[in-house]
Design brief:
Elements: H1 2-10, H2 19-30, H3 32-37, E1 43-47, E2 51-56, H4 59-68, H5 70-80, E3 86-91, H6 95-98, H7 104-110, H8 119-125, H9 145-156, E4 164-168, H10 174-185, E5 191-195, H11 196-208, H12 212-220, E6 224-228, H13 237-252, E7 256-261, H14 273-279, E8 283-287, H15 292-309, H16 318-327, H17 332-349, H18 355-361, H19 375-386, H20 390-394, H21 400-416, H22 421-427, H23 433-449, H24 451-471
This protein binds adenosine-5'-diphosphate and magnesium ion (MG).
Magnesium ion is lined by residues 103, 174-175, 228-229.
Length: 472
């Protein structure tokens, strides 16, 4: 089935876009913040002669991306596909959950057209550290304190624990700690920071190009070897053999080895017993899911840092902080991502989002029921609020007391549903789409000038979204 699908998708094109490469370009051109908050969520669906289909998980993200970044995105993808004229987005409600496990580096590795040419070049790459992941900005609590202390200890007292093996679920801060160790050592030691997948990739590549000697030299010369995501190592015997010897040689000469994985050594699969037992031979420590206290601490620290960077003091309300802490419990990565988004939103709209806006912004991260708001529901709620009948709202009468509610309902239909302007027009007694645009613009303008109206609309929004949630 997959095969036939593939054929269908690609029948009219020769070159295939390497999406991982495009994603790397996004990261480069837009910067980490925008990339992590928005663009990373874009999945590639299919490629045609002069357009491509991408998908994201919510309408909100699609609208955000298309309204702000689409032109640049088009230019960037054009670098890889000259014929490109347009980009289409679909909404796939599950899209962002599926590949959460693989971070960008891993995805890059998995792509076949990887163009790291030389061990030498790539060796340099493995010493590039992310300056955002340091000990100083690692927030500690009960669940990760030991891992933090042990990682620091390693930088002060080399090979005190050897190897140090840190394990825990996705987004718990393992890579952050390895990175922090690397930063501390990088100025006076030869540090090799590599994911297990990369290690395998380099191994196979060196084998093919008869560069095994170089490969061994590079690894065996390091003073500090940091291997991330060891669970992805599942290579052939020969590779494990090489790894085993590298490990022993390094340990013998007193080099520090730090390993991270998603499970304890004895639970690793497709890895030789003797290697597992080596991994258990130093200190094995786990990072558990953050408790309530740590989540709060992270929310506070991160939001303070981010608002500082923005120079303007934006203070996220306690209500939103509690909401985040209650809704995003398992992964620190998601928690940090959520705060990033709230700060992006605040920067653009110059205000902290309220609760219903937060729910929309973070919809794909939260396990809230689907937002199935209909125009009909909006009309009902708006009529109730303004105490008019639906007939009046849908009539052609232009009395003042009808015009504002009508415009409000149209405005909410535009912002809370994905209906097009003509569709909205039709739902309001076949009004023209220009009338819809006019209503939306009028309310947008009024919201800026009239605080009471703005508050009323927020309340209405809450009511519409909240009611719907209750129903399901
Ligand atoms: P893992 O490697 O365990 O999947 P990462 O180290 O990549 O997780 O962490 C995911 C994100 O969360 C990163 O942006 C990281 O900086 C952040 N993070 C994780 N733990 C903490 C923490 N204790 N304090 C501050 N930021 C953290
Ligand atoms: Mg990681």
């Amino acid at each position: 089935m997959n095969n036939s699908l593939d054929q269908n998708f690609n029948h009219d094109n020769q070159t295939k876009i390497n999406w991982n490469e495009v994603q790397s370009l996004f990261q480069e051109k837009f910067g980490v913040e925008i990339y992590e908050s928005w663009l990373k969520k874009i999945d590639f669906v299919e490629e045609h002669k002069n357009y491509i289909l991408l998908s994201v998980s919510t309408r909100f993200i699609r609208d955000w991306i298309t309204s702000r970044y689409l032109d640049q995105i088009l230019q960037i993808i054009k670098l890889k596909k000259k014929e490109l004229i347009r980009i289409e987005f679909s909404i796939n409600h599950n899209s962002n959950k599926s590949n959460k496990k693989l971070d960008t580096a891993n995805q890059n590795f998995l792509s076949k057209n990887n163009n790291v040419s030389f061990i030498k070049d790539s060796y340099l790459q493995y010493n590039r550290f992310d300056s955002n992941k340091r000990f100083e900005n690692f927030v500690t609590g009960k669940s990760n304190k030991l891992a933090y202390v042990a990682s620091k200890k390693v930088t002060e007292d080399v090979a005190y624990y050897n190897p140090l093996y840190i394990y825990g679920g996705v987004g718990m801060g393992k890579t952050h700690l390895l990175n922090a160790i690397g930063i501390n050592f990088k100025d006076n030691k030869k540090v090799m920071f590599i994911s297990a997948e990369r290690f395998m990739y380099q191994f196979v590549k060196s084998l093919k190009s008869n560069d095994m000697v170089k490969f061994k030299d590079y690894f065996r010369n390091s003073d500090v070897l940091l291997i991330d995501d060891i669970q992805f190592m599942n290579g052939k015997e020969a590779m494990q053999e090489e790894f085993f010897h590298t490990f022993n040689a390094l340990k013998e000469k007193g080099s520090q080895i730090v390993i991270s994985g998603d499970r304890p050594p004895n639970k690793l699969v497709r890895i030789q017993e003797r290697i597992k037992s080596r991994f258990s031979g130093g200190l094995v420590i786990d990072i558990q899911s953050p408790d309530d206290e740590l989540r709060k601490k992270i929310i506070n620290t991160k939001s303070e840092q981010l608002t500082l960077i923005n120079s303007e003091q934006l203070i996220i309300t306690e209500e939103i902080k509690n909401f985040l802490s209650n809704e995003i419990k398992t992964s620190i990565r998601e928690l940090v991502g959520a705060i990033n988004r709230i700060v992006s939103f605040s920067k653009i709209y110059n205000k902290i989002p309220n609760l219903s806006e937060t729910k929309i912004i973070l919809k794909d991260l939260l396990n809230l029921p689907e937002n199935n708001v209909t125009i009909d529901l909006i009309q009902t709620e708006v009529c109730k609020f303004f105490k008019i009948s639906k007939n009046e709202m849908l009539s052609s009468r232009r009395s003042r007391y009808l015009v504002r509610p009508r415009q409000t309902a149209i405005y909410l239909s535009k912002s809370l549903t994905s209906k097009s302007l003509p569709e909205i027009g039709r739902a309001f007694s076949n009004r023209d789409h220009t009338t819809v645009i006019h209503s939306v613009k009028t309310i947008e303008k009024l919201r800026k000038e009239d605080n009471d109206l703005s508050l009323n609309i927020d309340n209405l929004k809450n009511k519409i979204l909240y009611n719907k949630n209750n129903e399901i």
